[in-house]
Amino acid sequence: MKTGLLRRAVQASTFALIAAIPVLNRKGITVLMGSLYSLAIGPLRITDPLSGVQAMIASPAVDGVLLFSILIPVLPALIFGRVFCSWVCPQNTISEIFDYISERLGVKRFESLHLAVRSRYVIMACLLVSAPLAGFPVATLVSAPGIISVQTAKYIYEGAVGLELGLIGVIILFELFVVRRAWCNYICPVGSFLGIFRFGKTMKVAFAEDKQHSCSRCLACAKACRLGLDPMGKGLYPLCHNCGACIDACAKTRGGGGPLSFKF
User: Fold this and answer.
1) Structure confidence at residue 234 (pLDDT)
2) Which residues contact 150 (CB under 8 A, 6 or more apart)?
């Protein structure tokens, strides 16, 4: 199966899971509980690392269970990079859909804000510092995946949504008409925090030419990247979230393997 098809299946499964949890809970089935802020699978707890760290900073006590629940999503990030962002995050999926719609409509947008990559880390640092001052995980107020999952549950339970969902609407409209993929590229604190957990062996998109895998410079890989990155250039990380679209596009133009591939 191509990487793209597998990724779409995972993205669809994520939305199905987000909707299924409150439906099952209403029927008294509690093997799955929570949201993308904090998910419980039986006795296992999985917590959004940024929100979890903020909760620990805001509290003087160290919670061992919380710490372990934070480490569970950190481990895949260390091995596979920010695959949560490209394969699981519902906001990324929504942004990809509206990015495609914007292209089909021929909307003229800015491709970038000409901001340094460090801008996303400045936002993340401000959120971390604000936690002890506010006394609660401030990042939960701007965690798009958490908001989507919680508001989905709220709608299923109550038939209504909260004002928090307005943030998702703002992101969609801004990316649809103003700046392409602005949230994921320049703002998202959840993706920024996951991007910290990288080392030399973390999976990455590698460009390597040889006799069997030469590059024709067709730029199909760059056109396929929804974040506007050049897979053949430098500085691909920390923005690249290993979706694999560039690898599939490269292979398609060549009718087989190309110079782009995932490597550890």
Assistant:
1) 77
2) 35, 37, 164
